[in-house]
Specification:
Strand content: under 5%
Distance between the termini: 18 Å
Structural class: mainly alpha
Strand order of the largest sheet: 1-2
Number of domains: 2
Helix content: 55-70%
Number of strands: 2
Length: 179
C-alpha cells in the first residue's frame, strides 16, 4: 500500500514504522508519473547515537597506547601485566565494534556491550594498579591521571551506548503494546 502525500509523492507506511523503532531504514520516494526511484546517494548516515558512542571507544582506547601509563606497563619485566592490558583493551575495542553491527537484535547487542564493558573494567583495574606502583600521588603524575581518565571515558561511552540501546528496546516494546 502506497500513500500519497501533499507533494504528490508516494510512500510505503512500513518504511515509516522502521524509522520509528530506531532501525536504520532508507526512505525512497517514487516519482508519481514515471514510478522510477531516484539514484541512490553514496552518503553513509549513522542514525543511532549508540553507534556513535560505541565507535568513540576506538579512538579513546587507541589514544591510551600513546600515554605514559602504557609506557610504564611495557616496563613490566615479566610481561604478564603489559600483555593483559593490551588484550583487555583489544577485546574491549573488538566487542564494541562487533556490537555496532548487531543493531537488529538489541538484546544481543546489550549483552555484547556489557562484555566489552567487563574487559574495559579489567583494563581500568590494571591501569590503576600500575598508577599506584609508579610513585607517590601528586602533580607530577598528572599525565598518568589523564591516562586513567581516557580508559574511564571509554567506559562512560560504553555505558551511554548501553543506556540508549535499552531506551530503544523500551520504545519498541511500547510500540508493540500500542498495536
Amino acid at each position: 500500500m502506497l500513500l500519497k502525500t501533499s507533494a504528490g509523492t508516494r510512500q510505503n507506511p512500513v518504511e515509516w514504522s522502521r524509522m520509528i523503532v530506531g532501525r536504520p531504514a532508507e526512505i525512497r520516494f517514487q516519482h508519481p508519473a514515471s514510478g522510477r526511484k531516484p539514484a541512490k546517494n553514496n552518503i553513509i548516515v549513522i542514525q543511532r547515537i549508540q553507534t556513535v558512542f560505541l565507535l568513540l571507544v576506538l579512538p579513546v582506547n587507541i589514544g591510551f597506547y600513546f600515554t605514559p601509563m602504557f609506557s610504564h606497563a611495557m616496563l613490566d619485566p615479566s610481561g604478564w601485566l603489559s600483555n593483559g592490558l593490551i588484550a583487555a583493551l583489544l577485546f574491549s575495542m573488538a566487542l564494541s565494534v562487533y556490537a555496532v553491527f548487531l543493531f537488529g537484535d538489541r538484546l544481543n547487542q546489550m549483552r555484547w556491550v556489557k562484555r566489552a564493558m567487563f574487559f574495559q573494567l579489567i583494563a581500568i583495574g590494571m591501569n590503576i594498579g600500575i598508577f599506584f606502583t609508579v610513585g607517590r600521588l601528586g602533580m607530577n603524575l598528572l599525565t598518568e591521571m589523564f591516562s586513567v581518565g581516557l580508559l574511564v571515558l571509554a567506559l562512560v561511552f560504553q555505558y551511554l551506548a548501553l543506556h540508549y540501546i535499552d531506551k530503544d528496546e523500551k520504545l519498541v516494546k511500547s510500540m508493540d503494546r500500542i498495536r
